[in-house]
UniProtKB/TrEMBL annotation:
Cofactor note: Binds 1 potassium ion per subunit.
Domain TrmE-type G residues, every copy: 224-383
Binding site for K(+): N234, T253, I255, T258
Domain of life: Bacteria
Gene (UniProt): mnmE
Gene Ontology cellular-component terms listed: cytosol
Catalytic class of the enzyme: hydrolase
Main location: cytoplasm
Organism: Atopococcus tabaci
Cofactor(s) listed: K(+)
Name by which UniProt lists this protein: tRNA modification GTPase MnmE
Length: 462
């Protein structure tokens, strides 16, 4: 347990009026400072058992004035979040009282914590590694259940374990290379070393590429699958949108005189968070494509991860349909053949032909049929039909992704270097670089400066 840190305190509950507020103190003096404020018939917090909760009053030691009636949790290190002694004071007053309590604690020798400093201590005291610290933030910010469980997995160290084993492999190779270099008198050593480096670099590259391939899903879980609904006027885009958004939200759309410009909506389709983009346009004009033209659709299409292309199957395909079909042919796309309750005027054969690999789903917004199939198709497209496994480990943090890409590059440099017959000691530099970059993910090879920057983006009290 690290003891060379001062004692810090902060309000850990979000700002605003709440039923209770929590002030957290962490560090060597947490208990003694709390004791200066705590009053309960001769009881001393520094003498109670760890992980217990205590009723009492808090007073300002300078004035003996009662601040609040509180419940105090005593958590003695090292089995705590920061590995230090922690005292958590549950006040039940409003922000004013909570602030008073914090100020009093600060006047007794604690320092106001920086944003993220509690988590930073957890990291510095070796309780969690950097990717886990970042996961703390992700858990707080995660938008859907699936992305929350992804963040929890990262918090429990799944990614760290993978990265650590990759680093160990690299270290083993580098050690082997060192040994070989120490015996230069054998002719075949140089060749052996090259082929060893080559095999290892290729294997590592494979592994990292496969970790990175989960990044796409990871981003989706985190930010939502950018989805846009396109189609010519009157095919049923608004109806589909409202259907996806649920009845409640549909009501808020076109109230006369309001200028609500809702551009982003989130819906959860079988655990896939959809971020519906450019929906304001669909709501406001009923002939979006004709008014804003195919040009604007092109923009929406470019931004989207998924396109729901709605067609009216009671009408023959017209040139706009064909234009949109072409425009979206290389995209992740689902064709929605709407109005299946009406007589069909299109050939399913022709549409399937035009659709290529895109799923074709028949729906009726009027009869509310085909919605299940559509949801299934969305899930299929992005998770190969598997419901998102709770323990799937998706890399979703952008910092991790860019470091993994950097590692990938170093390994590719190793391979091309060897192919070009570069001397082993030069190739070794790239291999070492791969080891360093991976270490930055878990924070093992991280500079102080970067560390501070990272933790300062955390919210206060965490
Ligand atoms: P948009 O212009 O593409 O947004 O189409 P809307 O959702 O506004 O729908 C245009 C018209 O088609 C409305 O009168 C809807 O009630 C109707 N409509 C939408 N879906 C269906 C459907 O599945 N069957 C039938 N019969 N009518 C539908
Ligand atoms: Zn519409």
């Amino acid at each position: 347990m690290a003891t060379d840190f001062d004692t810090i305190a902060a309000i850990s509950t979000p700002p605003g009026e709440g039923g209770i507020g929590i002030v957290r103190i962490s560090g060597e003096d947490a208990l003694s400072i709390a004791d200066k404020l705590y009053r309960m018939k001769g009881k001393k917090l520094s003498q109670v058992d760890s992980h217990t909760i205590h009723y009492g009053h808090l007073i300002d030691p300078k004035t003996d004035q009662i601040l609040d009636e509180v419940m105090v949790t005593v958590l003695k290190g090292p089995k705590t979040y920061t590995r230090e002694d922690i005292v958590e004071i549950n006040t039940h007053g409003g922000m004013l009282v909570i602030n008073q309590v914090l100020q009093t604690i600060l006047s007794q020798g604690a320092r106001a914590a920086q944003p993220g400093e509690f988590t930073k201590r957890a990291f510095l005291n070796g309780r969690i590694d950097l990717s886990q610290a970042e996961a703390v933030m992700d858990v707080i910010e995660s938008k859907t259940e699936a992305s929350k469980s992804n963040a929890f997995n990262q918090l429990s160290g799944d990614l760290s374990a993978v990265i650590q084993s990759l680093r160990q492999e690299i270290l083993n190779v580098l050690a082997q290379v060192e040994v070989n270099i120490d015996y230069p008198e054998y002719d075949e050593v140089e060749e052996m070393t090259s082929s060893l480096l080559m095999t290892e670099a290729e294997e590592l590259l494979d592994q990292i590429t496969s970790i990175l391939s989960t990044a796409q899903q990871g981003r989706i879980l985190r930010e939502g699958l950018k989805t846009t609904i396109i189609g010519r006027p009157n095919v049923g885009k608004s109806s589909l949108l409202n259907r996806l958004l649920g009845e409640e939200k549909a009501i808020v759309t076109d109230i006369e005189g309001t200028t609500r410009d809702i551009v982003e909506d989130y819906v959860n389709v079988r655990g896939v968070p959809l971020k519906l983009i450019d929906t304001a346009g669909i709501r406001e004009t009923d002939d979006a494509v004709e008014k804003i033209g195919v040009e604007r659709s092109r923009q929406a299409i470019k931004e989207a991860d998924l396109i729901l292309f709605v067609l009216d199957q009671s009408q023959a395909l017209n040139p706009t349909d064909h234009d949109l079909m072409k425009l979206t042919q290389d995209e992740n796309r689902i064709l929605v053949l709407n109005k299946s309750d009406l007589e069909t005027a299109v050939s399913l054969e022709e549409i399937k032909d035009l659709a290529g690999n895109s799923p074709v789903i028949s729906t009726s917004m009027t009869n509310q049929s085909g919605i299940d199939d559509l949801e299934e198709a969305i899930a299929q497209l992005f998770f190969q039909g598997e419901t998102i496994e709770k323990d799937a480990n998706y890399v979703s943090n952008t910092r991790h992704i860019s470091l993994l890409k950097e590692t990938q590059q170093s390994l590719e440099d190793v391979i091309t270097g060897l192919e070009m017959g570069m001397p082993v000691d030069l190739v070794q530099i790239d291999m070492t670089h791969a080891w360093e970059t991976l270490g930055e993910i878990t924070g093992e090879t991280m500079q102080d400066e970067l560390l501070n920057e990272l933790f300062s983006s955390f919210c206060l009290g965490k």
